[in-house]
Amino acid sequence: MYDRSSPFALPQPPGPTAKSAVALQVLRHAVLTCELAPGAAFSEVELETRYRLGRAGIRAALQVLAAEGLVAPLPRQGWRAKPITGAFIGDVITARRQAEATIAYVELTTSARERVQTLVMLAATLAGRQDPQALVTARVTDRQILDLLADRTNWFHRKWLRELWDHSQRVVCFLEAGEVQYRPLSREDLFEALAASDRAGATAELSRDIDQFETFVSRALLRRPEDLLGRSQQRSARRSRVQKLTRSTGKGVRGEPGSTAKS
Q1: For the purposes of burial, counting CB atoms within 10 Å of the CB of 210, is it exposed (0-12), middle (13-18) or buried (19 or more)?
Q2: Domains in the chain and their CATH numbers?
Q3: Which residue, among 170, 202, 28, has the nearest Cα to 106 in the 3D structure?
């Protein structure tokens, strides 16, 4: 029986709205962590089986993710996770440089300042730790700091910033391998600049963070050069190789003496 007196009880039993929210949370996590691999195609039936979610919730969640550019519908086939290419990553970096500039103009209220400071201090305690869980916690904490700062901007900027940070998170998950790990920068200097209304200092710190992200991407792509090309470019390259091989083979056949049959 649903115990309404429980301190963990929801205001009302889970219904369609709650199930849709759960589906969105599960599928967003699957896309951002590349559990649903970039460029991979999948159907709603496959998601229903894999994640044990209702079809209506899945469909609603995919519509939201499509609006954010994380997935795209495939007519009569299902859905595809947004491919990640060098060109796409470049677009994300360029857009971040433009959109994040608004954060330098954020004015923190007393309560917001206290919350951000608490998170900044937590991130500082995690900075020197090398264990995987500390890295995960540091990333979650850094995102919480950014989300709090985005909350102080207008609706449009908040939406754009969060979508760009989601895409950046997905790029990191896609490119990380072995010793190539991405660690967030300390936000202490950014917090101090915002608290002092130092817009130039805040802008410099935001740019430094994006520079680090760009450096990480460059290092990772040098180790995986195939990711510099999109799927369409890879197909074009394969077609070009096949055409060259065909022409080369044809020339060899025509050039062989006695290759033409005589009647």
Answers
A1: middle
A2: 19-81 (1.10.10.10), 86-225 (1.20.120)
A3: 202
Q: How many residues can be counted in the chain?
A: 263
Q: Which of 126, 130, 132 is nearest to 145 (CA)?
A: 126
**Mean per-residue pLDDT, 148-174:** 96
82-137 pLDDT, tens digit each: 999 999 999 999 999 999 999 999 999 999 999 999 999 999 999 888 898 999 99
Q: What pLDDT, on a 0 to 100 scale, did the predictor assign at position 139?
A: 95
Instruction: Give every CB contact of residue 207 below 8 A, 6+ residues apart in sequence.
Output: 97
What does the block give as tokens for 83?
């491919």
Residue 173: CA count within 13 A, CB half-sphere = 18
- From the list 196, 168, 12, 183, the residue with the least C-alpha distance to 97 is 168
Three-class SS state of 181: coil
Residue 227 has pLDDT above 60, yes or no: no
Distance between CA atoms of residues 42 and 85, nearest Å: 20
Q: How far apart are CA 62 and CA 66, in angstroms?
A: 6
**For 140-151, what is the mean pLDDT?**
97
- How far apart CA 144 and CA 165 sit, in angstroms, is 11
Report the C-alpha gap between 251 and 241 in whole angstroms. 15
